[in-house]
Amino acid sequence: MDSSAQQVAYDRRVRTNLKYLDEFQGCFIGGAAGDAFGYPLEFLSYGDIIAKYGESGLQHYVLTDVGEALISDDTQMTLFTAVGLLIGKTRLMYRGIGASYADYVADAYTTWYDMQMGQRPQYGAGWLTTITELGVQRSPGATCMTVLGNTEFGTPQHPINDRKGCGGIMRIAPVGLYLHRADGQNGDLNQLYETAAEIAALTHGHELGWMPAAMQAHLINTLAYSSDSLETCITQVLQVTEQQFARCEHLPALTSLVRKALEFTQNTRPDIVNIAELGQGWVAEETLAIAIYCAVKYQDDFSSALRAAVNHSGDTDSTGAVTGSILGTYLGYSGIPEMWKQHLECKDVLLKMAHDLCRDCQGTEYFEPDEQWVAEYSC
């Protein structure tokens, strides 16, 4: 194939991949919006929230003096998950060799940790190292910081600890967008579950630290590439999750809580009552259940879903982030109200990362049409 024909084929692949850009950008912006909305409430009780913001709770962003809604470590680590995936793929395409995606994501997290600590990064993480906001500490999780500080990581088979906090699930959405794509690229469904579990288990070793993350990744994947209803997608994901993790001791605790969340969407009790019974979101299975409850109950109303997801006692930035990523993928970027797009810190960074993850690395070691891509995603 001559160079002009190669360029035409390259451009066609890029255009085909960008077919799903609305879903990708919806996922990134939706997740960041929920994170930024819930971040000011993270350590407040429901009573404190009502006392401070009124009977209906917080209804819109809390802005800084410069007019920004600040993202937390949830969105920061989501971006570093995405950059790790793309660095791994770029190395494979241009050099013909590569380790697992989890290995590259682990290096990206180590870079994020170094930035958080004001240290010179040990590893490259593409262009994200130039974004100073990603090095500002926004209540990073103790488990993640401890593991990353020791630079020793776990796997589902060899856990690093017995932690099951939501630090694994809140950062996993890019895996669901990127793997098991509708165009047949980047592996199959088994690889999606395996990779999501491995990436969560880097820092959270309990089965309920990484199983909900894998389930969330599959849900994001199904919503991005399917036209089925939200409830149908969740039902399908539940069934596959039960097959994938059939031998896991704590699987029933996860699936029963998710089914309870779905049942609660049909009752007439106040959201705060239903959410309190599901938990507070500090652990991953509760985060997922609360997010599914809010997303399903308010599936055509992004704003109401986020308000339900953050106005409660618990880990509000994470329940907001996971809810936003689910509904943002389902509704697309075009379906997110403008009020959640305005004033969002790192909005342009999020949109670019979503674009690049959607586009994917299209070069090879034999044909390099995009020097900028190589510069941004080589290691």
From TrEMBL:
Essential cofactor(s): Mg(2+)
Gene3D superfamilies: ADP-ribosylation/Crystallin J1
Cofactor note: Binds 2 magnesium ions per subunit.
InterPro entries linked: ADP-ribosylglycohydrolase, Ribosyl_crysJ1, Ribosyl_crysJ1_sf
Keyword line: Hydrolase, Magnesium, Metal-binding
Binding site for Mg(2+): 72-74, 315, 317-318
GO MF terms, alphabetically ordered: hydrolase activity; metal ion binding
Family: Belongs to the ADP-ribosylglycohydrolase family.
Protein name: ADP-ribosylglycohydrolase
Species this protein is from: Bifidobacterium dolichotidis
Organism classification: Bacteria, Bacillati, Actinomycetota, Actinomycetes, Bifidobacteriales
